[in-house]
């Protein structure tokens, strides 16, 4: 048996990949052979969700094990919300801080998106619009990651930009290669460590590879991946008709059809590079001593339900791929377990042998024993959080507060959401996903007893437990 405190950690996290696009699930006509193979070697959580399905809040939850109210990252980090200190505090404890303190070599490659842009803004594409997005992460804000090749958020996938270990704020560099390919090249170099200069070869390592695709712009993907889908036109068109069946606005039907092939191409590109990274573990002969976690920070509606992307309570936005592999410790299987992103911090720390030092600030649950044995209490529900800023007008005086927006609960059958508008109006939404898997019909009014039960017995206790200032005046 592997000694847990010598176990490496590898996290591969593409951005904006919905769970439904995993080929082996048979729900969408994608091509993901490496993920298919990996799923047979892993614990696959088929009902994992991003509780706050937006980039920055989700990434903060993953690193800290806390929900958005506690992390302070309640919406995306950008210039519009910088005045509200919407960024990951350097004082909070992340799992990377713990592992660094326990002697791990730590590395972060790719998208970070946890810093608020400040003036003078970095002169780059993501900052040439009224709202600025990209920012350098200072060394003291990197939460223990000692190898650094990352950026805030930057969406030119074919010419990405990065700050390296010792680069100053103005010393960023561009790379003439597709982002996931370049990041995988570097991850492979880090894992193999042939010169001994990438990391301390005497220490276990923890490495995050945070790929931006399949995040838009969807067309910024190499042609070789696009070409793979020329033979799947019939399958894609068939799925497109089903996916947009209830979108009566032609705008969103067109948006879906314009982008779905390129999005699939991105996912296949991510899959290929994920396979390359896994092969490096095998070549180094450390695949049996490396905990590998594959997940996304949230999903993507791509126009389905009339929603452009994420930050909504629909399954395409909420559900994420989550696969966990540790040979000899975690038996491969599929589980419809209601795991949430904050649960990953304490779970991975425990799997690595550090259960005793899980921070008291963690709000997620350690499910390491369930991973190992399949035994243990199963979660009854999952919390949903959306600030709703993007529905507000800039001049609204409530902007910057966290007592409006959407809160909800998702259990094995129902999704309940309450939308508290800035003016105090409350709208309820209830979907029976068993009878209505596409979430077409809101049954909140006709099934008021079910709605009240879910609110009183599931959502309200969580709101109180998390000290969420959002609480409707009535139900």
Structural class designation: alpha/beta
What is the assigned CATH homologous superfamily of the largest domain?
Alkaline Phosphatase, subunit A
Cα end-to-end separation: 52 Å
Number of helices: 12
Give the oligomeric state: single chain
Average pLDDT, all residues: 93
Low-confidence stretches are 390-400
Q: Per DSSP, what share of the residues sits in E-state strands of 2 or more residues?
A: 5-15%
Order of SSEs: EHEHHHEEEEHEHHHEHEEHHEEEEH
* Count of DSSP strands: 14
Q: What is the domain tally?
A: 2
CATH architecture of the largest domain: 3-Layer(aba) Sandwich
The shape, in one word, is globular
Describe the structure.
It is built from twelve helices and 14 strands. The strands form two sheets. Strands 6-5-4-3-7-1-8-9-2-10 form a ten-stranded mixed beta sheet, sandwiched between helices. Strands 11-12-13-14 form a four-stranded antiparallel beta sheet, covered by helices on one side. Strand 13 and strand 14 (426-432) form a beta hairpin. With 475 residues, it is an alpha/beta fold. It starts with 7 loop residues before the first strand and ends in a 10-residue tail after the last helix. The protein has two domains: 4-373, Alkaline Phosphatase, subunit A (3-Layer(aba) Sandwich), CATH 3.40.720.10; 382-465, Arylsulfatase, C-terminal domain.
Keywords:
alpha/beta, 4-stranded antiparallel sheet, globular, single chain, Arylsulfatase, C-terminal domain, 12 helices, Alkaline Phosphatase, subunit A, 475 residues
Short synopsis of the structure:
The chain is built from twelve helices and 14 strands.
